[in-house]
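Researcher: Structure prediction, please.
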Amino acid sequence: MREISPSCRTLVLVCTYNELANLPRLIDEIQSVAPTSHILVIDDGSPDGTGDWGAEYSKTHPAMQLIQRGAKLGLGTAIKTGLNYAIEHGYEYVLNLDADFSHDPAFIPTLFETAIQHHSSLVIGSRYVAGGGLRNCSWRRHFVSRAANIYARWMVGWKIRDCSSAYRCYRIAALQKMDLSSIECAGYGFLEEILWAILQSGGSVMETAIIYTEREHGESKISLNEAIGTLAVIHRLARLRLFS
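Model: Predicted structure follows.
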């Protein structure tokens, strides 16, 4: 596996809420597969001490930085905070992955390398292209995930197979052409909304295969309200498509 060029400034973004059981091992694995990358953890006031661990760790490991927000403000706003941090600190690429090991860190070099080699605005770690898939997930999770992506593609007119994957690598130069403050959704619908914004700004989007694995520790953060919010975003984007 080819290493990421140390001359390319890359940032790995991890947004956390109650991930103390996962974060220490995750940081170790990220550093193992992407030793030249920096890491930014954004914690939303985890009551389990995730942020406290991150604060102590960052004191002796300057390659990892921590932003503590003090309250649960939503995945979308956390990712947006991380993207703005990457822009402000001069990174070239920022990669986001979940903290619960549903996104295997072993795919990090592939996402970075694909983005760098093809100058892609966005590379999505996709469950639904050749070689991708889901592991240890219930039939209900398989059905809901596939149905949601089919629905989004149909409503918005996308050819992208995995619109809702949070395992993504963004090219900072592409983000600088956009107004990130115009992206409204605070929750998981942010993923569809920024995808729309990147495509509308003329950006290029690629997919590369990943295997998604159901989390082993902790609880899922996806609630009914989050699902409804994401559906509302898709409907709003469909209206924009219709009248643009």
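Model: The helical segments are 23-33, 50-60, 75-88, 108-118, 139-156, 172-175, 190-200, 224-243.
Researcher: Thanks, that helps.
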